[in-house]
Amino acid sequence: MENLLGWFFLLLIFCFIILWSKKFPNLAILLITAFFIRAILVIFEHYDFINLPDTHSDAKKFQTIASEFSKNNSFFILFYFLEPDSLLISRIISIFYSVFGESVLMAKSISVALGTASVYLVFNLTLMLWDYPSAKKAAWVAAIFPTLVLYSCITLREAYIVFFLLFGCIGLVKFFKKNSFSSFLQIVTSFFILGLFHGPLLLGGILFLFFFSLKLIKKQLLALFNLKLKIFSFILTIILFIPLILILSGDLTVPYFTGYYNDINLIIYKANIGIKGLASYPSWLIMNNENELLIKIIFRIIYFLYSPFIWDIKSSFHLFGLLDGILYLILSIYLIKNWRLIWENPIARFFILLIFFYLII
After folding, report:
1. What is the pTM of this model?
2. Which residues contact 62 (CB under 8 A, 6 or more apart)?
3. For 209-223, how does the pLDDT look when each residue is reduced to its tens digit (9 = 90+)?
């Protein structure tokens, strides 16, 4: 029954994609391909034909917690659904468990659905920024990119995070173009949900509020110079700065971030945790004092994006990571080659800053 439930959800997702493809026939092959790649890997992994990386440890933990939530709390989980403990994925899965019964394959199918939907969001986002050919190319990259495919097949937070991050970025584009309240609400909601999955992701929303506030301040100064100051806009500017002030003062806590940004010893301690285990930085990137912080952060970003390198390969799983790193290197080269075109687009420029901001934190 458990496996049958998972098969039913995969079939349901496929039917929805077919219906969606009728609305957007030019995306039919793209979305169906994205779905089948993910669905086939999920099925093969579920029935032990293959062993995908990262399918144990955290993935098992989130499944177990979801099962406990379903058994002990059932629908009462809704009363503390928005707890900032990074267990939102388990709460979402537990609701499905409470309604339909427990099924690991069903839980994985949620990731498949979000992963496939993210391919469409990539197309939509790129189309809003550039043109149709660029959007189609970007969507195909998202459909077959190894990391995105992998984390759309297992019960980890990444598939959920990518989906809501893309949804928030689409809201950002709409807001920069139209300054509509609905797009502002889309941004705030998306980054708030991202913060529930992983605390520091909330800071992307804070970064948006900071830049938006600077833009309002510029307008207020010009209005003040011309003696045309609007009280409502002035009050709104102050309100938008409040979250940033509260975070810096420590009155508003961000999980996995608050308490670290202003304590160099805690930053070094937290950074050195990543030295342990197979998926780790090399020992020469251990931070010993604050003087090494900047240079080793740069090297860590390089390792984070492009490793494992050939000399780091210690298992067959690392070959998957090597391919992933090569693709990231190719994307980086294209990014550098087209940096002027990207930088001339103010929205794309903000996204580049957002990416670097996330890489640093």
Report:
1. 0.87
2. 87, 89, 90, 93, 155, 156, 157
3. 888 877 777 777 776
